Amino acid sequence: MSAQLLEVVLKQADQLTSDEQLVLASRLIERARRTKVFTGRPKRKWKDVCGTLPYPAFGEDAQVYISRTRRESDEHRERALKRVA
Questions:
Q1: What does the radius of gyration of the chain's CA atoms come to, in whole angstroms?
Q2: 20 to 30 A from 14, CA-CA: which of 7, 35, 48, 53?
Q3: What pTM value is reported for the model?
Q4: What is the tens place of the pLDDT at every residue in 16-59?
Q5: What average pLDDT score do residues 1-6 get?
């Protein structure tokens, strides 16, 4: 929609009573919601992407990755606490 058309609609809405403006607003919102449902991207579910990466992902076993990142996180936290103390 062009900015000019939007301004025309807003000026016309100024001529409505407060109750009529609320009805107009609710109808526009409901219309936008209905349109968004059909044109929006569908929500993805984890089960839809499960197994899409080859094993081992990024060349590292999952348990090794978990253990390594936990250890790195613990080390980072300890260094941060030492700086504060």
A1: 27
A2: 35
A3: 0.41
A4: 999 999 999 999 998 888 876 655 667 778 888 887 877 777 78
A5: 85
pLDDT beyond 90 at 13: yes
The whole-angstrom separation of Cα 23 and Cα 78 is 58
CA gap 43, 51 in Å, rounded: 18
Burial class (CB in 10 A: 0-12, 13-18, 19+), 24: middle
Residues 6 or more apart from 24 whose CB is under 8 A from it? 13, 16
